[in-house]
Amino acid sequence: MGAPLIRATDVTRRFGDLAAVDKVSITVEPGEIVGLLGANGAGKTTLIRMILGLLPPTDGELQLMGRAPDREARARLGYVPQGLGLWDDLTVEENLAFVDEAFGSRATAVPEALASSRESLVGGIGLGRQRQLAFAAALGHGPELLVLDEPTSGVDPLSRARLWDTIHASADAGAGVLVTTHYMQEAEQCDRLVLMSQGVAVASGQLADIVGGTTALAVRTERWQDAFAALDDAGVLVMLSGTHVRAVDASPERVRSALGTLEAALEEVPATLEEAMVARERSAT
Amino acid sequence: MKAMILKEFRELRRDKRTMAMLIVLPIVLLTIFGYAANFTVDSIPTRVIGPGADQVVANAPDLFDIGEVDPDATTDDALAWMRDNATEVVIDTTTQPPTAYVDGASLFTAQSASVAFARMGDQVQVDILFNPDLETSWVMVPALIGLILTFIGTIITSIGLVKERQSGTLEQLAVMPLKPADVIIGKIAPYFLLASFDMLVVTLLGVWIFDVPFAGNPWLFAVGAGIFLFVVLGIGVLISTVSQTQAQAIQLAIMLLLPQILLSGFIFPLDAMPTAIAAIGRCLPLTYFVEIAQGIFLRGAGLGALWIPFAVLTGMALLVFSAAVLRFRRDLAPSVHRRATSKAA
Fold first, then answer.
1. A82, B172: Cβ pair inside 8 Å?
2. Checking DSSP bridges between strand A6-15 and strand A145-149, what pairing results, if any?
3. Quick check: B340 contacting A, CB < 8 Å?
4. Binding-face residues of B in 122-181 toward A, CB within 8 A
5. Which of A112, A194, B37, B77 is the most buried (most CB within 10 A)?
6. pLDDT (tens digit per residue) in A26-54
7. For all residues of chain A together, what is the average pLDDT?
């Protein structure tokens, strides 16, 4: 196997005293989808900007396509930023034509779903269509690596599913994908995950690796509000889904003790990725 | 309502640029207008030639600041000095009565000189050169071209560039395999061409509608306008590199545009300003463009007479445009690859 498409080793970026990214290591190989997870401000976008060569790291080693993240390396990737990076005052066709020319690639066909909007100004079409166009523009030159920053943010579930089909198709064709997201369902579609919290990679590996060590207890009781308050007061990591109370990373004894005389049935259940993330973030702080 | 007013004041207090416009700008405007808004010229650079020169010097009103007295110079010398803008007035005593040549391209100076000579009765005959009827439009149109170029160069260019940053497409351009020079030239060239087109249209309209004479070499004027355009485009790019939003860019551009309108000699004559205010005016690019434009349009001046404003504008263009390109390039291509290469090596 050749060099990874992305290899970041102990990469750090400081802004004054604040370490926005602190000794993060990450690799992306051809054909794999790596998810970068974390809340807003976790350092995902700063890390991506460093990988793309838009922001110099304060420390650490960074390679893109086996070399410094320079223009030649960037020519081999497709990037969809959070803001999509489309020109609102150009039409769908004109946007694609400009990107094709910039990358020196053959004319990218307007996606079928956008055929009726090919001459519409991008600023005038819906967000879902804009995202499809951004994907088409990023994929037009056949990139070896896709870097997607919150690629499905704000689109409906059907459009999101379509965009993920595109991501999987690219990966199946051999492209590596680095994608940031905070949708748990999307994270579950990644081959590997890196979980970031306050600039630090607090966990990495496959979904099972991240969730594996985390336990959850479903607390079943009529008095779910009292149960939630009691567990929270006792410092137990407690989450609520509707009226279902779940205690994360806490032993049955600790939960019983926190509930006191309140009657409740406890059942051990698999932790969700979201619960695992919150537990990891909590233990990291 | 009280909460709304308080919120507004709090926001304003933290918006330093708006505060500057609200507090600093009125003070600056008041000071500049107080000192610079003066149409009355108190001192007119004057030369006297011919056999009766000494007598004229003794009798000339104080308004005329007689710098050079040359009894041997000829009328041709006098006209050459006027064309080269070496002086505002030449009193030629080789004729009888003496002839005062007055530079009509310096409107307010010429008006003041005309009034002073009129008071002297038949002692001097006045010949107003380059703008015999002292038409305001003849003086304003060449200078207006500079103002239009400044407007396009600073405001329109900075808005265009900040829009790219604000919408996030500047980052997309940085990720594309475009050379920074391609992006910079590709971004600025359309504004350069549009401004050049505007310059051509305004020049032709000025000549056609207002009968402004174009006495000089059009190519020399085109070169001067081109150099000036580099300066103002550079200022526009610099503004864009320190502005996050289009509103900020407009604020900053206006703050830089106003002094140019007031202190470039475009409206108020530099000769009528106090030395310190005039010195500020002499730091502004529009001042030199106005000198070039009026010189070529009205006096038919050549490079020999205009080399100083040409040289100053060229220096400004090199300085400002280089700084602008370097700053813009920094946004597009940070030194990341150099650092990363060294780490990777």
1. no
2. unpaired
3. yes
4. 167-169, 171-179
5. A194
6. 999 999 999 998 878 889 989 999 999 88
7. 87
Residues of A with CB under 8 A from a CB of B: 50, 52-57, 60-63, 67-72, 74-75, 77, 79, 81-88, 99, 102-104
What digits encode the pLDDT tens for the residues B223-266? 999 999 999 999 999 999 888 888 888 888 888 888 888 888 88
Q: Under 8 Å CB-to-CB from B201, ≥6 apart: which residues?
A: none
Inform me whether the pLDDT recorded for B343 exceeds 50.
no
Residue A200 token pair: 């630090």
Look up the ipTM and state it. Answer: 0.80
- Answer whether A61 sits within 8 Å of B339, measured CB to CB: no
- Let me know: does B85 contact B270? Beta carbons within 8 Å: no
Q: What are phi and psi for residue B70, nearest 5 degrees?
A: -130, 95
- Looking only at the bridges linking them, the beta strands covering A176-181 and A33-37 are parallel
Residue B240: HSE in the Cβ half-sphere, 13 Å Cα cutoff: 35
Whether residue A130 is predicted with pLDDT greater than 70 in this model: the reply is: yes
- Reading the block at residue B95, the tokens are 């004729």
| Separation in Å, CA of A150 to nearest CA in chain B | 14
pLDDT at B339: 46
Enumerate residues 6+ apart whose C-beta is below 8 A from B169.
A83, A85, A86, A87
CB-count burial class (<10 Å; 0-12, 13-18, 19+) for A267: exposed
CB atoms within 10 A of CB A181: 23
Give how far B304 is from chain A: nearest CA, Å: 46
Side chain identity, residue B232: V
State residue B127's pLDDT score: 92
| pLDDT tens per residue across span A103-116 | 888 888 888 888 88
Nearest to B158 by CA among B231, B238, B230, B227: B238
Q: DSSP string spanning B12-60? A: HHH-HHHHIIIIIHHHHHHHHHHHH-----S-EEEEEESTTHHHHHHHS
Radius of gyration, alpha carbons of chain B: 25
